[in-house]
Amino acid sequence: MQILVTLASTPKGSLALLNAKSWPWLLKVVSEHSLAMDVVKYAFLTAASQSLEQSLFWDKLDGTLSTLVISFGNAKDFTQLFECLNQILKASPARVSSSFRYRHVQRI
Hints:
This protein is mostly helical. It has seven helices and no strands. The protein has one domain. The longest helix has 18 residues. The N and C termini lie far apart (32 Å).
């Protein structure tokens, strides 16, 4: 898992992770393994610091959020999830797109 954290911390590695079709193998264990959450966090934070296409960032984040919340469904403490999302959204490219915001406000 440490190798994935290191990979996610590099521009090419974060882009490769964001381009991966899905992360179910990783997202299933984020509530139990802090390094798995670090992979997700650093992939998005590193990608946000690069000049990559915003739609890739937001599409991957959109697809990841619901799975993250589900994986924390049985967890007693959501602090790790909220801190991670806070850091990602603060570093996000430009602004939260209106379609992204609309889809997630509807779910709440």
